[in-house]
Amino acid sequence: MFNNKILIPVFIFSLSTVVSNGQNEDNALNYSYQRPTGTARSIGLGGAMGALGGDYSAISINPAGIAVYRSSEFSFTPSLIYNNTESDYYGTTSSDDKFSFPINHISYVGTSRLMRETSGLVSTHFGIGYSRTNNYNRKSFIEHDGVKSSLLHMFATNAYGLAPNQLDDFYTGIAYDAYLLDLVPGSSVNEYMHAYEFVNDEGFLELGPVDGINQKKMISEKGYSGLFDLSFGANFGNKFYTGASLGIATIHNKKESQHYEKAGSEVYDDYIAYRQNNGMEILDDFYFDEYEKTTGTGVNLKFGVIYKPIHSIRLGASFHTPTYYSMKMEYDTGAKAYFFDADNYEIESDPGEFSFNFRTPIKAVGSVAYVFGTKGLVSFDYEYTDYSNMKYKSKSNDVLEKDFLEQINDVISNTFRATHNFRVGAEYMVTPMFALRGGYAYFQNQNPYKSEFLNSDGKHYNITGGMGFRAGNMTIDIAYLYNKETYIHSLYYSNEIQADVQEPADMTSIDHQLAVTLGWRF
């Protein structure tokens, strides 16, 4: 049965339905984003592998790349990622960092050669492997003293018009039970005021702390998305290559956040007098905690071709269907409120759970590469993804649940747009056994908000480099990736207060990744 009191606040806050003034990143983007790193050769070439093939990461871009293999291969890629995330909130800069040690990929490719070597069906290929498609490990810290608004403004706005027993069980209801919200005395429309507010002589709500509120927020994210895939391909005349893959996608994302506020050192006497006269307590500081874990399994298909009109030119094209996920979200919230010369309150919600289906966008990739004989190559990929096609779908037949998720889908289609992403890479063979590589990838707003949204200014790019060694049937590739993303994080939003007193934080996240691929061909 659809529980309107539970599900709506969870989607509004946890899924962060986006408004034109800016909100937190929508979880739909996290489910749909792919930040694949893969093999060290692919990293070194900036991920521009769609027309090259012969590498397992190339198969994830264009499955026809499996048909370029001339032998069988086993390979795997361990890596080290160091993330540093910096925030700028009202001019106060803070940062935090995190290490992780993912396995980028592990794979086996089998090649079956026929008798003919130059015409007709030359070879067939089969591959099985796992690739990490996204890394969620990140810690962020945001702070500033003297902010002229509060998270509680948002709670009070969302509670307007509701009786206390109608408040939701995870946000406004938790705040009310912790005495962070109160009904305005004498209000006939269930208007709420928060614990840092009072009613001034003109009858308007006013912030009690004269010098504002000191705010801090810690966000800790961990988890990954990955893809187990089965790939098949065929080589026709060493000129035309085809391939297809069936992918089983997995996602495991956990996010914990703690928002902290403390009254500034000076408060209005009128604030203290008003609250004491109306039997309200004087708030010193409070914490509001959120926990969310999302897990899911999905399926997708990829199709691709590579064509060599002449030996030095490679042309590639591929199509990726959406990934159709079955997902489950678990969540809870809690508040701790500390008052001067009064009781303190610690309130925790009951655990919540919601299951749903989710569809990621389709993707199309076009690729071209030029090979300079045995001395090197240059490769270019263009990728098109339309994020406005992301979609939630109910697992039940409940009409209210279905209607609510359709409202979320309307927000998605009106908020997001298509992205045009570019990758370029180059490889130079210093000797037949040693290669140097470099690459660059620019993702036109991997936070693909339309122009009227704050996150439309977000940037995302990679700079990469690497080297490769071959000794007999063994290959060793080493690569470094510098990944930079800028985005907006809004701590809260209320349409009842001015934008300049609820500014979002400007975030910059940088990954430094070192990867090593060991491969054996036979």
TrEMBL record:
GO cellular component: cell outer membrane
InterPro entries recorded: OMPP1/FadL/TodX
SUPFAM superfamilies referenced in this protein's UniProt entry, alphabetically: Porins
Topology with respect to the bilayer: Multi-pass membrane protein
Stated family: Belongs to the OmpP1/FadL family.
Highest taxon of the lineage: Bacteria
Protein name per UniProt: Outer membrane protein transport protein (OMPP1/FadL/TodX)
Keywords: Cell outer membrane, Membrane, Signal, Transmembrane, Transmembrane beta strand
Localization per record: Cell outer membrane
Xref: Pfam families: Toluene_X
UniProt-recorded Gene Ontology molecular function terms: long-chain fatty acid transporting porin activity
